[in-house]
Amino acid sequence: MNLARLQQEFQNWLVNASDESAALLGNHVAGLAVYQNNYRAQLVGCLEGAFPNLRQWLGDEAFLAACITHIDRHPPHAWTLDVYPAGLQKTLYEVFPDNPDVHELAWIEWSLNEAFVAADAAPLRMEALASVDWDTARLQLAPSL
């Protein structure tokens, strides 16, 4: 087995717990399970960090179950975990179809995450404020909001 195939089988084991991949990787299933546990714990931690209020709202058990469902259905696809939590909202619609409070709280928390990492907008300089016609002025929020 070449290195590329070994890496592909290892990824398949991490993401899917594939018995076929485990067999191809050898008889070190206990060691592989440690890697898989760490992989899943990292993804749960990523989701917990992005949705702390949702976790508190749902409770640890329900939140963890939703996270595991999400991890099983949607493995990461980007080079960074910063974008991974974005897909949790879709999973929440499936897991809690009749709970709009959960959906709205997830939307609010993810929006705050997005605003936090968004590019900065140029602020209006103090000198420019002096020439503003306040009777006709319109406020414009930063693009990230």
Account of the protein in words:
- The protein has 145 residues and is an all-alpha fold.
- It has one domain (3-119).
- 65% of the residues lie in helices and 0% in strands.
- It contains eight helices and no strands.
- The protein has helices at 3-16, 19-25, 29-50, 52-58, 60-73, 88-95, 100-117, 126-129.
- The longest helix is centred in the N-terminal third of the chain and has 22 residues, at 29-50.
- The radius of gyration is 22 Å and the shape is elongated.
- The mean pLDDT is 88.
Task: Give a summary of the structure in a few sentences.
The chain has 145 residues and is an all-alpha fold. The protein has helices at residues 3-16, 19-25, 29-50, 52-58, 60-73, 88-95, 100-117, 126-129. Helices cover 65% and strands 0% of the residues.
